[in-house]
Write the structure tokens for this entry.
Amino acid sequence: MKSVQEPVNLLDFDRQGLVSFFDDLGEKPFRATQILKWVHQAGVTNFSLMSNLSKSLRNYLEEHCTISAPKIAFDAIASDGTRKWLLEMACGNRVETVFIPESGRGTLCVSSQVGCSLACTFCSTAQQGFNRNLSVAEIIGQLFVAQQLLGEQQKISNIVMMGMGEPLLNFNNVVAAMNLMMDDFAYGLSKRRVTLSTSGIVPAIYRLTEACDVSLAVSLHAPNDELRNQLVPINKKYPLKELLEACRHYVKSAPRRHITFEYVMLAGINDSESDARALVRLLKKISCKVNLIPFNPFPGSDYQCTSNNGVQKFRDILHRSGLVVTVRKTRGEDIDAACGQLVGKVADKSRRTQKIKLIKAEHAA
Ligand code: SAH
């Protein structure tokens, strides 16, 4: 058998990865299935308890491998039952994972990066800057840890890749983690219940079509390029025409043959009647659902959320024109667990340090 220096974290592998890992050891592919079931279904991390592995394989794994999940730095439960964990990753980086219980389902909101390199102006994660991509173990580890802590009573039925970071900028690790979420011998979730949310990294949307057909949500937030360039600056690189073309392509193989467009409601910015009508024109020919998200404020943000009345009016215009539209319920506000409030603890390695200093100076003043 091959000798390995650093312990190999088996949480870093999806089925395909495990099969080739065991192949290198001269072991048969079914070992991958056995490990998946022990780790992800039974929650067993001690190799000596894996009774259907040969003694020599158990010994080898004990010596050279590990199953190492993120550690819990903080655990908070909101008054509405929403639960947020601050998880400590390698090198002291911290990211947040949120569980949202609802009647008949439980959704886990998973982070893909430490911080975020995109500079969406209404998102608090963006204000933190970017540190690094999460590994497969750190992404799937969020589900692994949450499932163990929630136990049998609170089942995780849905996953949304809507935590910290831009999942499509950590493509390979996110795809491997989503493969595990959907693997019948790991978490067995249907592709309709695993949703990836992106700000619109166009080439990666095409790649995703080939790699993994999960449900897709696109953070639209504006009905024209001029406004979207300001709110979601990656739009300057991948403008709406290209983004919507990629969406139309994705729809052909998407679960339920539709895409969700997320639209954060910002008072006086993107919530006028003419914005609603422009949105209708933009989305007319795409099979989609629009999800209106009330803006969640965070320290240092200048935006206000559209009034309830304003959100209803906006919704009605979309609805009357035949679009399917829902309004996202804000959850977990009292523990800062709502959309766009996830910050973790990011040692900023990107250009936005300056901006954070300015925000801090404003607070101090
Ligand atoms: N980077 C990915 C996923 C993370 S954000 C993306 O952009 O889609 C998940 C969703 O929350 C996105 O639609 C994002 O635009 C939205 N969001 C970010 N900040 C928010 C805030 N302060 N209030 C409400 N929604 C917000």
Observations:
- Residues 8-66 form a domain with the DNA polymerase; domain 1 fold (CATH 1.10.150.530).
- The radius of gyration is 21 Å.
- The longest helix spans residues 136-150.
